[in-house]
Every structure is written in structure tokens, then in C-alpha cells.
Amino acid sequence: MRPEQFYVYILASRRNGTLYVGVTNNIARRVWEHKQGLAGGFTKRYDVKTLVYYEATESLAAALEREKRIKWWKRKWKLELIESANPEWRDIYEQLL
Fold first, then answer.
1. What is the dihedral of CA 36, 63, 67, 25, to 10 degrees?
2. Which of 12, 27, 34, 61 could form a disulfide with 7 if both were Cys (CB 3.0 to 4.6 A apart)?
3. What share of the chain is helix, strand, coil (3-state, %, to 5)?
4. Contact by Cβ (8 Å): 75, 10
5. In the prediction, which pLDDT does 3 show?
6. CB–CB of 25/93 below 8 Å?
7. CA dihedral of 24, 29, 32, 33, whole degrees rounded to 10
8. Where are the domains of the chain?
9. What's the chain's average pLDDT?
């Protein structure tokens, strides 16, 4: 992870469950916050804390544009994106550490 990178990430409650798409400049810290319940709102309410997908971008503008695009995708496309990189829906948070 490079400090000047920004990340678009997808969390899931379970395989094919509730999805959350977010942006951060520190993915390890942000996912940890979700896992600890420190990120209130949607992810805490629906117990969405399994990191199933992420990608790096070179700028905040690029990350925000990608996040916006993914959020407007059909659910089927989001599931296909996750499964293309993580077919078993493993929690890939440990790979970050």
C-alpha cells in the first residue's frame, strides 16, 4: 500500500448478502474500523464487515468516480466484479496486513 493511493472497496455481510461500497486512503485502518463497529450507520446496522473486494487508484477524484459508478451498477454486476477477483468470497482483510 502506498500512502498516496486511494482505494475503492466492497464489504459484504455474507456471500451474496448485503453489500457496501466505500472509498478510503487507508484501507487497512478503514476496514478495521468497520470490523470493530466504529464506522456507524449502514455497515454497523446491517453487520457488513467482510472485505470481499478492493482496488487502488492514483487519486481521490478517480476513487470517488469509481465508487460512484459501482454504486449505480446493477447488483448482478457488483456480484460479478467480486467473484472475478474473489470467487470464494473470502475475507481478504488479512492480505492487507
1. 10
2. 27
3. 45, 20, 35
4. no
5. 57
6. no
7. -70
8. 6-96
9. 95
Number of CB atoms found within 10 A of residue 31's CB: 25
Residue with cell 470481499: 52
Q: Does domain 6-96 have CATH number 3.40.50.2300?
A: no
Q: Which residue has the cell 448485503?
A: 18
Which pLDDT tens digit goes with each residue over 25-60?
999 999 999 999 998 899 999 999 999 999 999 999
Among 19, 50, 18, smallest CA distance to 34 is for 50
Strand 6-12, strand 50-57: pairing: antiparallel
Specify whether the CB–CB gap between 76 and 42 falls below 8 A.
no
The set of cell numbers assigned to 48 is 457488513
pLDDT of residue 2: 56
Percentage of the chain lying above the pLDDT 70 cut = 97
